């Protein structure tokens, strides 16, 4: 079957997903019955004596088998612990011995703890165990296998995913580890509706693009926003996978609960925090391009009772990249401590310091030679088109955070999150601008940070979110309401210095021998920009989740006030470039406004696991610092979305399927001015509409799957503007209407699947393998739709081995190997008019991990 024809047809993809659903529905129960009759495999357990709830968490983590219970059932129970190799049934029986409790099976990969048989007629409401028997922990913990069923990200309350009328996709810790993701872009590459690697290797080559403010990825075609532990983050380091417990993609508007965020959605990340049970892990990693990495992750009790616990995660990594002279280095530490002050009061303190002294730069290339064949073929991915003498790029970041909660009674709780972060970025390098008509001469210019020591940005961010969460039951109606206020203040000092003296290199033989000392003796070509910025935002929000039998209605609203102060200074002195005299321009700007956003939706949970839902939501995002070509301040982005979908959990399994259809409209989208180079204009209204299908499944305890299909049609639907069309050398071919054009760098079709399979232990003794495939459809290189960036398909493979299956003395020792872009395919991630970004070539990464 020819794959490209299928991938262009969303209806065909929908049929395939339906067929997959049917197959899974019929396969899982049969497999469960077959395995029940077989001898259960044995697992290596190392569970210390202590509380029964903590022991069952360890059981779940070490066997990858889900355990459910109702918290009061476990209260006050202890266990003598367990060490050695046992089947899951044997292990549970030993842990529950003497407790007066028993268990029952839920499919082949889940158990439910119940009272002894004499009380078996009691109906229990199961609460999933992910990292703790506390529901809040399960909603922010690592998840079990590839499936998570609870979240706090969408509603700021512990809510099942099936009771939220929006698309939410959770990337669990197990999935991150199995895929050996090294950046937040790689973490998100298998998620529906997200295009996370449009800049290809530039994700490595820029400190800011690696993790800052969404990491240069898009959701449903719109720029994404990044939140860490529920607070807005402009962090350049918080997206480090070694520090992440889980990642959630909230596709669609989320302004009601978070304030400023784009219409496409936001990425919510949870940093690692102290665990209920001891955790000790070290890893040593290696890979191609000279990668070496080590991580440490340790968590334990400080007090005997466990009321005070700590965790320390740390990383050190160095590597090259596929591009010459572009290297990556990072060291960081994330300490945290949790204090259960009493049964109703909890406090978590967290700090982070991350230093990334080198990320390199210069990963973009001219259109001719990358997207299109050049005069001498294609430019190698290893070629560096800059000046190696001026090639520094890095970041420093410090962060402090606390999370506090207090339950006044069973009906009312107070929660507060606070974060302060100080981020700095520095660089001194060159950038390319324009390929000559000879197809070889490439112009480059120098630039650097202008705040001293090559520092370009210093940004201090304060964020505070305080809320009351209430629970009210009135007859058959159950309500969870929330009322809160959040505040953020950002203080940024920024300065850039450009050296407009043109240097040229031959892209087929890039030898640089005459670049002047940067900024010395060339004052006639220097241009400097300074733009200190301050902005404040205050939001008051409310939400009510009303549950009546199987129907859940979610209503919410938010009022935001924001104040923005922007003071830009531009200075340029030139006697050699166009005979332009010295020019100074000062542009003080202040913008103060308010906005109201709201959402409403419902879900209906059928007994057989199917949940249809529908919702309407609005978004709001100020376009800070964007001054239009006519000198006016850019209008805030405002959007709205209609979404309808289905969520389906196959009964008695861990198979979670979703389908969503959406229509998003966003106003005041900015575009490059066709008349003034470097300036922007209001592009009008953009519409994104599409379909997303996803599957997250622990089919058995040894087979885990994630798969998705995304179709997104995104274009300008209302605009009076024109845009300039270019040829491959940047020559102006005239203006064309913007209305009706597709948004550039936004693929219409994306399909992916990742499968991890641990082979039978009695034959392969702990060996597991995985395989992934990723298809990204074509995109356009610019808003004029001058050229198409071709579609591409990539393959990923990997393997892992658990040495505990050889001997219990090797328990905790594991080896993993991952290879992305197996065939080393050369492809272009995206283009922006005349510059293109190569995608990542074959990357090999190995990891030796030891837990004790």
UniProtKB/TrEMBL annotation:
The keyword ATP-binding does not apply. CDD domains: ligand_gated_channel. SUPFAM superfamilies: Porins. Pfam families: Plug, STN, TonB_dep_Rec_b-barrel. GO terms for cellular component: cell outer membrane. PANTHER family: FERRICHROME IRON RECEPTOR-RELATED, FERRICHROME OUTER MEMBRANE TRANSPORTER_PHAGE RECEPTOR. Belongs to the TonB-dependent receptor family. This is TonB-dependent siderophore receptor. It comes from Acetobacter garciniae.
